[in-house]
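User:
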Amino acid sequence: MAAKVSIAQALHKAELGVNPFLCDLQSFSLHYAGMDKHDRLKKARIDAGFRSAAAAAERVGVPYGTYSGHENGGRGIKDDELKLYAKAFKASLAWLATGEGEQGINNAVGVKGLIGVGGSIETGSEQLDAEGNIFEVLVPVPVPQGAFALQVKGDSMWPRYDPEDIIVCSKPSNDLLRLIGWEAVVTTPEGNRYLKRLVQGSAPGLFTLESHNAAPLRDVPVSWASDVYAVVRAPHWQRLAETSLRQQTRKAGSSK
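Assistant: Predicted structure:
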């Protein structure tokens, strides 16, 4: 008869590369129903490929003593800290906090720009798919790989969108013909960016860009476009911390 193995022991086996499912499944269920928050944190860290707590702490930007205390249950985890871990380990915030739902749903997305009057987009980088984000948000839908987000600035897009709505867009593509007739984020060769409906222009390679609150832009060349994947109304998204805990600590220290 196989010896029963605790959740902590099974997680340790997983950390060492031993398949925990070879253990007694009565004591280590496939759904990890008996896990505490710190157990879920350790599992998320291992599943994300971090073989040690030290490596995870360095990646997240948290002092090792703080992180190890969270993982071994020696200290409580604040909401902002849990959000950082969910992002770093690509785990569902709800699962990490309560054990409810699936572990691996990735619902964090970076906001790359602000949508202003006429659907024009203000960004802080030369390319919307660059690494830098203005900030990051959690949205109530799974986000596809390569997606990015934009935020509506004020009432610039009313009545189609309300202030602070989040527009989640798919990975940029130069396959423009499939987006004819649809609203999309587009970039022109001059670097101008818009959220507009894409309409075929008077000649191949030229497009008319339409929106509800501005005159059409006719016969505009477009370098690439991204289709709108989801629209998340302002009350239904949550902003993630913009800086790591280490950066916050440094700022606090420099202000003394």
